[in-house]
Amino acid sequence: MIKIARFLKDFRKQVILGPIFKLVEAIFELIVPLVMASIIDVGIAQGDTGYILRMGAVMVGLGVVGLGCSLFCQYSAAKASQGFGTVVRNALFAHINRLSHREIDAIGTPSLITRLTSDVNQLQLAVAMLIRLVIRAPFLVIGATVMAMTLDLRLSIIFWCAAPLIALALYAIMSRSVPFFGRIQGYLDRISLITRENLSGVRVIRAFHKQEAEKARFDSAADELTRATIRVGKISALLSPLTFIIVNLAIVAILYFGGIRVDAGHLTQGELIAIINYMNQILLALIVVANLVVIFTKAAASAARVNAVLDIVPSVADLAGADPVPVPGAPRIAFRNVSFAYGEAQENALTDISLEIRPGETLGIIGGTGSGKSTLVNLIPRFYNVTAGSILVDGVDISQAPLSWLRGKMGIVPQRTLLFSGTLRENMQWRQEDASDASIHQALEVAQAAEFVDKLPDGLNTRVEQGGRNFSGGQRQRLTIARALVGHPDILILDDSASALDFATDAALRRSIRRETAGCTVLMVSQRVHTVRGADRILVLDEGRIAGLGTHETLFESCQVYREICLSQLREEEVRQNG
What we know:
By secondary structure, the chain is of the alpha/beta class. It folds into two domains: 4-310, ABC transporter type 1, transmembrane domain (ABC transporter transmembrane region fold), CATH 1.20.1560.10; 360-382 and 399-577, Rossmann fold, CATH 3.40.50.300. The chain has helices spanning 12-46, 49-98, 101-107, 109-132, 136-151, 156-200, 202-207, 211-237, 239-263, 269-310, 373-379, 403-408, 424-428, 437-446, 450-453, 473-485, 503-516, 529-532, 552-558, 560-569, 572-577, and strands at 333-340, 350-357, 362-367, 388-393, 396-397, 410-413, 422-423, 463-464, 491-495, 521-525, 537-542, 545-550. Strand 11 and strand 12 (545-550) form a beta hairpin. It is elongated and about 120 Å long.
């Protein structure tokens, strides 16, 4: 909690003034029983109606001033808590965007979403309670005890006996309920994961008729959360009865012994009523303290989860400074003995990759499932850091280059096509914000997307639903290729980005890219021989190693892995005939 309190620095005024005004309200609240005692002992006892009305007016005045102080504190608490939540959420979101794929893979998207929403909301509540009640509640407990002592020192002994018993009840209940709050947030993570999987994979679930199985899985996760919440609820529910029993027994004791002291003339009736009021104030304040313990315990668990993300140092660190100067005559991309392993994996996904790709060259990358094709191209824009070796772009080591310079040279089409909500024009301008409609239309022509975009009633102003769900799979792929082509990148990475296209469209796309992107280095990852066979060179990967590098004809004769891939898709006559 202390670490995350740094986000309150812009709300110092509210954090300081809010509790002060709440403290003033508490002082007035402590005065009220004394006014009430004087009304009973003087006004009622002597039948002085004027005195009763004057003291009544004083009580109303105390109430009005207290209300004003309370409203100002409430305003301060709302402004500080909501502002704090906004700052934390923005900082957390910005930090998540600085994390590399490795850290995001390790934490998991559902957990990150829960931390951005539920955990930050819990912290907002804690800040509001900090300003409103953290000073007020303890002050009322101490103040009421002191005021009772000033009225009758002997009766105040009952306060000193009741307070430790209430504190013991608080400790017994809180010590058993606190451990559950961290687990509850973990259960929320799991529910978020299952919900996300079901919403994004609804078509697959229905295709395999797995609705009941997924419902059972969700029910199981929800039941775990329910059981944990009910258990902590049962424990916490004991708090109010225990404290009420202790306080009411204390009030009975005050009435019994206080009555004796009233008869003896050591205490007035009004003072006895005031002492009982102070005991009730202590009861209400201690209940507030108990609730604060619950709130701050939850907030501590949430703060730990948020800090855990904020404390992560991105493995891919962006470097500040001027853009590096390309080395004349250097390969566009060069791999120097590169090896890479995911996370804590014992085995490398790529091992000892050495490769040079020339400017303007088209390199096809093919291999079996899990051979490392996507991993290879994901290392070039530095989505991950290499485990060993180095990668150079235009002669510059990418680990020493600003990410804006590196990724600004690239147009990337990932395996999973994704369009963002907004207009088509806004999606096409992701790579180049000021791209003109003419530039966008040219990219659409190259990507074979102009034919259907031109038929849309609103053209580039067509609204794109979340994820591009109002377009077919092939249309989404062509649109993402067009988005990568806007701005004429130096390097174009197509990671199996034509899998949803028919052979004719795929062939037209390849011809168009080759014709219209002169000087652009193209890396074309695919499982299809048809897609890569026309490349200048083909890289064949097998279990993370280079199994072959060369033209289609050369590899078919010399590389057993490539030959097997070809013959699994085409007859030998077709391979040689179209070669």
